[in-house]
Structures
1.
Amino acid sequence: DEMDVDTIWMDGEFVDWDEAQVHVLTHGLHYGSGVFEGARCYDTAEGPAIFRWEEHLERLFQSAKPYDMDIDYTKEELTEATKELIQRQDLESCYIRPISFYGYNSLGVSPKDCPTETAIAVWPWGAYLGEEALEEGIEVMISSWRKHASSQIPTNAKTTGLYVNSMLAGEEARRNGYAEAIVLNKEGNVAEGPGENIFLVRDGELHTPGLSESILDGITRDTVIEIAEDLGYTVHDGASISRGELNTADELFFTGSAAEVTPIRKVDNVVIGDGSRGPITEEIQQRFFEVVERETDEYDEWFEYV
Ligand code: PMP
């Protein structure tokens, strides 16, 4: 199979990759009524360790709330299933994708009587935007698409249906030769990437859009705020960042469980800083990898050993 794994956990069972299927009349397929997570397990000296698993599980359950979706498994059961998937497939590091969605019952928009189905897949996944992106930075495009406003749909819930917006923005950027998009919110301020939060560095301080800017409450965002503050940086969490401020930033970078810490070297055709990974971005990125790979014994509470 393409993903180099052969087992997926589905509703309490470990099933063969080929058999992990759903019915074509699944509610979630028609209406985007799924909630999901993306976490990483890192290879550490003490074995595979899932980074901030508790926070990812917590966000999964929180994401389900506005949709009145009951996930039929406890956090402990999902944790055991995930660990067993990683163990069974002898993975040292991997990406972890839990998903819960409304299954088939009737095809009305109301999910009444639809079962909630839950699955977990794990697979090896390298740098999301490429290894080179981590070092050289990427060129991004301001999308012509705006983010959903949080008054229109809960943007702090990681819902499958939201990602058609991410797809539109990301693919528009890639068609135009960029690696990724930056998406503005309804007010025209900087929100986030299609699957990343964004940070701006100016005069030695960090700025990142706040939750009221219609962003996902990223766990890597939270991690970077904490490690940057521990490195002595001032972080303005909750900044409202205008489009123009991107151009004049000293440095910009994306954060995400998949994207980790990815520098941005150009926005549209404007060079950011000196057009390469900035020094503060580099310091934070280095520290990030030191932390997640457990080369420091700090932040012990962030790890769930497999
Ligand atoms: N924003 C969006 C829209 C995302 O999909 C993601 C990835 N989950 C992020 C931000 C970053 O969140 P995290 O650091 O928790 O992965």
2.
Amino acid sequence: MSKTIGLTGGIASGKTTVSKILELLGAIIIDADLIAREVVKKGTPALKSIEAVFGKEFITKDGELNRKKLGVHVFSNKKALEKLNSITHPIIINHIQNQIIELKKNNSNSIIVLDAALLIEMKLTSLVDEVWVVAVTFEEQLKRLMERDGLSKRQAIDRINSQMNIEEKKAYADKIIDNSGGLSQLEALIINIWKNIKD
Ligand code: ATP
């Protein structure tokens, strides 16, 4: 029997790092962020809806989504973000659902990992068998986010605070992956978890 795991956590907590380790161990990864980008590619129904609702100014000369401009618009306007989500989220959820069905059909006895920052917010938890939350101390999260994205302390704090509180996310967790230590510590932890799910 295949098992589907939803992997989530705060920004820069280490979801991608964890999913890469799991992939090396043999898991099949579904990257929700990648799907979110694919559904708004040039010529897609979602992009057409975005153009109809938000206007031509959010489409580039080449017919692509102007992500930066739309990002600035929706992140300073809650109603606009809700509108955008109402266009894209159902399509993203549908794609993820279909991918899980397809992967399960073609891979018996596999571990499928859905890497999704918004797993809980988008109610994707109903599509997975287990929820794993990657957690890290606030200080470590701040440090990694500032380093990775070249942000100031203020900008990094604002990004962390704009997300669902990690304690709230932990309440949904079947497993909490503590990524406050170094990379070798994380690898050892994931290898151990992997052994137990494969047994
Ligand atoms: P996002 O929410 O933006 O998608 P994420 O949760 O996928 O981020 P990663 O990109 O995996 O987080 O990790 C954030 C940064 O922290 C990266 O630069 C990564 O290399 C680093 N990192 C992750 N885990 C560790 C660790 N245990 N020790 C040191 N650095 C780490």
3.
Amino acid sequence: IKDTSSRPIRLNQIGFYPNGPKRAIVLNGNGRSFTIRLLNNRTVFSGILTPSATPSFAGKTTYIADFSSFSKPGEYILTVTGSGNSYPFKIAGNVHQNLAKGVIKAYYFMRASTALPAKYAGKWSRAAGHPDDKVLVHPSAASDKRLAGTIISSPRGWYDAGDYNKYVVNSGISTSTLLSLYEDYPAYMKTVKLNIPESGNGVPDLLNEVLWNLRWMLTMQDPDDGGVYHKLTNAAFDKFEMPDKDTTPRYVVQKGTAAALDFAAVMAQASRIFKQFPQQTPGLADSCLVAAKKAWQWAANNPNVAYRQDQNNKKFIPAVTTGGYGDNNFTDEFIWAASELVISTGDVGYLKNINLLPDDKMPVPAWGQVRLLGYYTLLKNDAAVPELPEIKRRLINAADELIKGVDDNAYQTSMTLSARHFGWGSNSDAANQGVLLLQAYRLSHDKKYLYNALADLDYLLGRNATGYSYVTGYGTKTPMHPHHRPSASDGVTDPVPGLLVGGPNPGMQDGIKVPSKVPDEAYIDDTQAYAANEVTINWNAPMAYLANAIEALQSQ
Ligand code: G3I
Ligand code: 9MR
């Protein structure tokens, strides 16, 4: 049953591990105690509410219900006199397993150039769209005469988001985050079955899904010079229609340094992973490494080519007005690509002209901030670089900074410690904070990082100021109207499942008024609200990492 009310008891709507931390936040803690009840109302646990030491962004004290010591598996509700009941939740082993699979399966639903039969897609089955086998090289890419009038074949890949375009820059961090999930938790990820067409072929399903995008990415490289097109796109965002209805021309546009380096990083990482599956993916690992090196070389020769859509539109026809993913600082992209190449080739020469520590910033990863992806790779592979101890110190320090004051916080999560965390796609920031904390846990074995990563998952699944579990189809109060063309056009009431929406963003760049401009409340479940309620592959990826890593680590 979908519930659209806003219950004042906020908790992870999926549930808790028997021996893990368990917290709910009560907004109006009139009652001083809370109870945990079975669905038949019998009380099995009671506890005292503790007021938060600092107020929420809305300026209110919250009340914390900690029932970590209650460990009996079952299905329950939490009740506070005067506040009513929570949504039902479970205490169980593997409690996030379905969600964790669902946020990976979401990528199957995002596949371009293929039909999704009901056998795999259930009621969200749909016809094939965007074959992308005849893609025009846009004049912005054809200043190089060799390419003028050229048509390339660039099928497969995942649709970026609510729109049907395919962008290399954010495909980079998305694909890499999923590859890292496999690299960091191979034993667990080998057990995860997704019911996709390739299932059972001897390759873990997570990697099968990644291959759909990786094979597309390979086609985005100009084989002659190694440069990489920034994106494959319609000239303008298309209408809200199913993929097969959009038949407007598709273009690859100008090559750029960010695209080349993100591509190089992903291909280098993929080469060392697919090397483990030579029978199933013959030649792929080698092709990826060759492609990575060529893209790196292109970037070394073209170190400062930003994708500037506005400038291009003054010069070339047709104008291209789809997503920009413009970035004009490539320091972090160079660090990331060099790090992946060093690990995959063993050649530290890639770091010759790279300053691994250009300043002391440790930005939580995002499509335009990829420095830490390089650090994660160097650390987990124990790279033979003199900066490694300092990188480790900085990573632990960044994790400590992220959770400083969390015990006083109104929602008890890293995400809700700073209003700065709330911009376009804030939910991906929450998920990437969780990933950072898990990297710190891997390095230190200190449980506080693991528990705070779990708290970020709790945030995303309902322990937050709006009361939404932000993943479609998982939880009781979930988004029903994401800015996602198939979900809005397929005639099915439920949106495509497993999609993490962007989340609270007081910026309102879409012009849709949110009910509140308080940072963590600035969210609306409205199809038009692309600045708060769109979905995209680079937001789902850290969610997939976080949920699956937490499942893999549940007994710790
Ligand atoms: O980098 C600045 C930072 O310095 C500043 O402090 C901060 C303050 O707001 O803004 C930062 O820039 C933001 C930028 O993302 C980088 O994070 C912009 O405000 C923000 O408007 C911008 O949003 C991007 C949005 O496109 C508009 O360009 C989102 O990150 C990005 O996820 C989104 O991507 C779209 C694609 O274009 C099209 N497909 C859907 C996808 C998701 O909505
Ligand atoms: O659907 C588009 C979405 O993917 C983008 O994130 C967003 C911002 O670039 O733009 C959306 O498209 C809208 C366009 O910008 C303006 N006209 C209405 C389009 C659909 O809402």
